[in-house]
Predict the 3D structure of the following.
Amino acid sequence: MFSAQTSAVEQTKAIAAAIAGMCRAGDLIVLVGDLGAGKTAFCQGFGEALGVTSPITSPTFTLAQEYEGRLTMHHLDVYRIEQLEEVRDLAIPELLDGDAVTLIEWGDTIIPALPNDFLEVRLTYGDGDDDRTVAMRCVGPGWSSRSAGLQNAIRAWMDQT
Amino acid sequence: MSTAEPSEQLILGIETSCDETAAAVVANGTRVLSNVISSQIDLHARYGGVVPEVASRAHVTAMTPVVAQALLEAGVEPGELHGIAATHGPGLVGSLLVGVSTAKALALVWDLPFVGVNHLEAHLYASFVEEPDLEMPLVVLLVSGGHTMLVLMRGHGDYEVLGQTMDDAAGEAYDKVARQLGLGYPGGPIIDRLAMTGKPTIAFPRPVLNEGYKFSFSGLKTSVINHIRKNPDAKTEDVAASFQEAVVDVLVTKARRAAVETGAKGLATGGGVAANSRLREAVIDACLEDGLTPFLPSRSMCTDNAAMVGAVGWWRLNSDGPSPLDTGATPNLGLPVR
């Protein structure tokens, strides 16, 4: 587990862009954080770095959006999912199988339904209105092997403590 | 037996894109013979939003009785219909499939043409159901839980999306702020009522107010949440009134700018948020100042309904003919633009 500090939404997007640069097909990123913490902003920065040109909007209403970039990007939001069985309708294994990266907002609520190989990004509020802590946790072999590279990629925003 | 005129074409419209199961019989795209809605709001209230799987199951249960009721209230036999229209997107895929499958099955059994209807186009046509002679070009402010956009209607079927939200829809911001304030679901009507008793004392930001026709409500939502976190004793009604003022200010400022800059004759609204009382007031005031004709559909025509689907179904059937029977549900369907 390691974390970075940001003081503006653009910095959260920049961290997302740095992570996007390290992503490959089949990757899964689980986004955790309260309303307004910056989960969709993270996905916007991530998508822009993948070369997505269409606007990346909140997927709360339709639950899943797909964008074309260097890799296809699946953007899911499970905010409204209350029962694990409902996750079936999102066909997550099929999404992960393809030539794409998948980002799931509020993904911590459906962990049992996800493969044990993902990057967790946790956004929490700081003291100032725009201050956020971006904490990352590598779960499973695919991400753990990239942990050092990941920390290097976001070094500029890392905690010095 | 039927209340239809011999020259009229009757369309059965079906709407299941989100949490309303609805069916209606509409003559010639304007005369509503019946308009039946079975709402699932109570089912979803405890979740603070629509739950897709719950919605799909509820649509399955309500679909047949709602269609039967629509035909009964219209006094129409299936043999008198000219076509069956159903929303095929955008919306929740499981919900859409219930309406689309029902409509296609009925079309096959009753040997009628099927028409797949775009939900956004249906909201645009809600105004024409109530005011068929509305003059174009017309700017429509389409605001709901899933969408926030400004559309220029040059003629029937001839649209241009002038701008839309870059993150959250306005109705989504209402739902999320209401949830944060512990007010329940749906957030729009609850905040609307509460705001009447409060004062807009807090200066929340007006995101991208001066940048063209695009919208952004994510930052406003965050700003409200920050305010609540730092001022736990803030009066809920004042927060609600201040939030609503910011949303309405952005929506109306951009809508009137679009109407003036495109030389539109009028400004119409559509979508669930268009039922908001403060927004309706502000649209009328803006139109009076700018010499535009305002058109605000009745509240029941703003929220999801099947009459608007029947209306678009009639227009599309006459302009493009029937849709193929392999038409599926398209959750991310965009507005057809020329």
About this structure: Chain B has two domains: 10-124+302-320, 134-298. Chain B touches chain A at residues 18, 47-53, 90-94, 145-147, 164-169, 172, 176, 179-180, 218-219, 221-223, 225-226, 229, 331-332 (CB under 8 Å). The mean pLDDT of chain B is 93.
